[in-house]
Amino acid sequence: MQVSVYAIIVLVLYILVNAVKVLKEYERGVIFRLGRLIGAKGPGLFLIIPFVDKMVKVSLRTIVHDVPSQDIITKDNVSIKVNAVVYFRVLEPSKAIVEVEDYFMATSQLAQTTLRSILGESELDELLSKREQINSDLQTILDKHTDPWGIKVSQVEIKHVDLPQDMQRAMAKQAEAERERRAKIINAEGEFQASEKLFEAAKVIEKQPISLQLRYLQTLREIAVENNSTVIFPLPIDIFEPFIKTISEKQKKDLDKK
To answer: Looking at the domain assignment, is residue 172 inside a domain?
Structure first.
């Protein structure tokens, strides 16, 4: 008799333990009663019918999935390796359990195939310069396909692009050539601006020839202050013009007297 009582007590305790469920704030329990979907319950404390109900626990927290590196051939026939990271979470636990066998594996495989598809339609320059746009396109496509599963893809980021060594050297040469081109253009623009200023200065000197002589004297003074050395500079012949003119007139008068 005592054994039967103990057995009943143990059975009741077992039923109570299996009937009482407690879920955390970020968890939901999808309940199946005799194989039929009842719905999702939680968080907190609730009861299920032991041996009749079956609960599948689902987390609602954002999952950060690192997409494995994918071998991709871009639109311009460049072979690269790309990996990405996908942020997604379960919005509807019932759909995530009923509509797809393994929502995590399904989302991961979909992310890999979508990554290869989208990047295969892009050129290498677009992949490197328009990464934000490509990330947005990936997120839109993944979110559209995972919506029937109750999954929300919030963000997709291309994490790393591995280029072949030959391509890296070619891009380095291209960047170096581009910098040299810019340097030459800047130098040419500087020469052009300097020539314009010289042209304006020449027009001023043409109106006042004496300014050229003043410039010679100013340059001589600046050199003498900065450097203690002998300086040879061209002397304008205009300085001796009055003397030459006086000598020529005197010689002419002497010839007239004779």
So the answer is: no
Helical spans, DSSP H, in the chain: 2-19, 93-98, 103-120, 124-129, 131-146, 165-207, 210-226, 241-257
Phi, psi (deg, nearest 5) at residue 122: -115, 150
Question: Are 73 and 155 in the same domain?
Answer: yes
Measured between alpha carbons, how far is 111 from 97 in angstroms, rounded to an integer? 19
Choosing from 44, 59, 74, the residue where a domain stops is 59
pTM higher than 0.70 for the full model?
A: no
User: Would you state the structure tokens that stand for residue 161, as one six-digit string?
Assistant: 């692009």
Can you tell me whether residue 189 is helix, strand or coil? helix
Using an 8 Å Cβ cutoff, are 42 and 61 in contact?
no
- State pLDDT tens for residues 29-79: 999 999 899 999 989 898 898 888 999 999 999 999 999 888 888 888 888
Q: How many residues does the chain have?
A: 258
User: Which residue range is the domain that position 241 belongs to?
Assistant: 208-257
157 and 70 assigned to the same domain: yes
Please state, in angstroms and as integers, the Cα–Cα distance from residue 139 to each residue in 74, 121, 133, 144, 217, following that order.
19, 16, 10, 8, 73
Q: Are residues 159 and 135 in the same domain?
A: yes
